[in-house]
From TrEMBL:
PROSITE patterns: HTH_HXLR. The keyword Coiled coil does not apply. It comes from Actinomadura barringtoniae. This is Helix-turn-helix transcriptional regulator. Keywords: DNA-binding, Transcription, Transcription regulation. It comes from the Bacteria. Residues 1-83 form the HTH hxlR-type domain.
Length: 123
């Protein structure tokens, strides 16, 4: 789930995933391969010599976004006494993401491309 979360945050390249997650290369290689096998991510070449790939979410992977946001909000309610470590807001108007996955300011239904994350009080 951490790899998927990082992909939602815009991480695409192996070294960037490794820097973000602090996981061993062999473990990350296995996880990315499994996510690709399951159809949640796909490898896209971005360099020929040496051959290098980006890992991008597929439609199936993007469909996990509502579940990820629901888990994030659940964790904020139950395990963030200092406040949420991450605030998810609407790029369009800076309103906050609601539990209905809408913007609390303008009411628009939000998806992964419509939001931005910034540090919260519990960061």
């Amino acid at each position: 789930m951490l790899v998927i979360r990082s992909a939602f945050e815009g991480v695409r390249r192996f070294d960037d995933f490794q820097d973000e997650l602090g996981v061993a290369r062999n473990v990350l290689t296995d996880r990315l391969a499994r996510l690709c096998e399951e159809g949640l991510m796909r490898k896209v070449p971005y360099q020929e010599r040496p051959e290098r790939y980006e890992y991008r979410l597929t439609r199936k992977g993007v469909e996990l976004w509502p579940a990820m946001m629901t888990l994030l909000m659940w964790g904020d309610r139950h395990y963030a006494p200092e406040g949420p470590p991450v605030l998810v807001g609407h790029k369009g108007c800076s309103g906050a993401l609601t539990e209905q996955l809408t913007c609390d300011a303008c009411g628009v239904h939000l998806g992964p491309r419509d939001v931005e994350q910034r540090p919260g009080p519990g960061a």
